[in-house]
Specification:
Jelly Rolls; 3 helices; globular; Cupin domain-containing protein
């Protein structure tokens, strides 16, 4: 079984701004781009994404696009979702449906998302994003902004927000 470091090396993964490691695996260059309210986007992009025991958190962030997450290898990953109306939802992406884990998780655009490696060395997934991912469409969560918007989820907000950069 490959280790987290072996996956990083084998797949050429790099650190991701939200935490963990990633590499883009596809963008629909063969199709016309789609118009969105914020510009032209690929119809679809995809990445490999890896959380590890030393980088176990995908910090709070919001994407405009819809994202499908597919579990491929390793340990389960817990997802925390906060919908625009403040409704909270959790799901565990993993290989054990008999324990309530799901192999595929759909997260609609506009839903705040954080994730963490539930246990173990690593969890390897892929994501398919439509319209295609663009950094301009992603907002990283800030503790003060999220607490003002979702005070009822204060513990989760604090636990999974990326630490502020020193000024």
């Amino acid at each position: 079984m490959p280790t987290a470091q072996q996956w990083i090396d084998l797949l050429g993964l790099e650190p991701h701004v939200e935490g963990g490691y990633f590499r883009r695996t596809f963008q629909a260059d063969h199709r016309p781009r789609v118009r969105t309210p914020v510009g032209q986007r690929y119809t679809l992009t995809s990445i490999h994404y890896l959380l590890t025991r030393w980088s176990p958190i995908g910090h709070w962030h919001l994407n405009r696009s819809d994202i499908l997450h597919f579990h491929h290898h390793g340990d389960p990953i817990t997802y925390h979702l906060i919908h625009p109306d403040g409704r909270y939802e959790a799901a565990v992406l993993g290989q054990a449906p008999e324990r309530g884990q799901v192999l595929v998780l759909a997260v609609p655009g506009g839903v705040w998302k954080a994730s963490h490696l539930t246990a173990g060395d690593h969890g390897l997934i892929s994501e398919a994003v439509a319209p295609g991912f663009d950094y301009a469409d992603m907002t990283l969560g800030r503790v003060d902004d999220l607490l003002a918007r979702f005070p009822e989820h204060g513990e989760l907000v604090r636990r999974y927000c990326r630490p502020a950069e020193p000024s």
